[in-house]
Amino acid sequence: MTQPISMNLQIVQTSRMEKFRHPHNTVTASELGLNEASHGMFSARRVKASGVWSLAEIASDPQAWLTVLYVLKGFITLRVPGNTVTLNQHDAVCQAPILPSSVVEIAPNLEFIEIVARDDRRVRNLIPDKPAQLVSFDSPALHVKGTGPRDFFDYRDLGVAEITRRQVEIQVIRAQRAREGGTGWHSHSMAQLSYGLSGWASLDVEGNSQPVIQKPGDALSIPPDCVHNASSFSDDYWALQLQIPADYSTVAAIDPRFGAK
Question: CA 67 to CA 73: how far, in whole Å?
Fold first, then answer.
């Protein structure tokens, strides 16, 4: 099994940031803590545009080794080799950075998440071959109900594991129903970023004294083997999850605060 990257615990709650609440004729953006958490290997940003603004304000890094764009609101049409592709809410594309030369049409109220792996030695050691381009359109058929202890979630794989030789996975998780008691305390052998898309979840994380109420716009970077629990969540809870690597183990754990399961 591939070893996870080093990750520090980081919590960034953009839902609490005033600048995201009522933007007008501007682009509002925030790095989601992944850059610091991953020691500069990866980064993630939330970008919210409104009204009149310029493409330069939202442009991607053209030198990145891996770029994943996930649309939260509005639409964007991009040129890709031999074609164009239009992304609407919950659609995603890999290896199609936002550049002035690549944008055909764009909504004035575009909002998106962009996850990037930088082009450096550590990233190339993790992902030796530059990933191919991939488009993932949202569809009900792609949300697959979990089995076993996770049957209260369904999962949509964005296909990133396939193009990175399973070094990186990005998926959307969606609650089938609200659940008091949540997932139970557990840990994973992979490094993880969780970004709230819809609804809410109450997340207890080892190393953080208070539960984190994750709402849309809130991100948690969770280290490998960090004990955590989604103690409760709403029936409309969605989250975008980055996992490094795609193949990992999950181990049930004891509540680190009270010594109780």
Answer: 18
Element (H, E) at 27: strand 26-31
Tokens of 99: 């550049």
Q: How far apart are CA 244 and CA 34, in angstroms?
A: 12
Q: Count of domains in the chain?
A: 1
Q: What is the CATH number of the domain that holds 203?
A: 2.60.120.10
Q: Measuring CA to CA, which residue among 31, 41, 45 is closest to residue 4?
A: 41
Residue 261, pLDDT score? 45
| Consecutive H or E run containing 163 | helix 160-163
Q: Alpha-carbon distance 187 to 1, whole Å? A: 16
Residue 176 forms part of a structural domain: yes
Alpha carbon distance 25, 2 (integer Å): 45
Residue-range definition of the domain harbouring residue 178? 10-252
Question: In angstroms, rounded to a whole number, what is the distance separating the alpha carbons of residues 115 and 222?
Answer: 16
Sign of torsion over alpha carbons 133, 138, 92, 6: negative
Q: What is the mean pLDDT of residues 156-162?
A: 97
- Candidates 126, 149, 185, 158; CA nearest to 7 is 126
Give residue 222's Cα distance to chain centre: 12
The length of the chain, given as a count of residues: 261
Structure pTM? 0.94
Query: Is 258 inside a domain boundary?
Result: no
**Is residue 234 packed enough to be buried (19+ CB in 10 Å), middle (13-18) or exposed (0-12)?**
middle
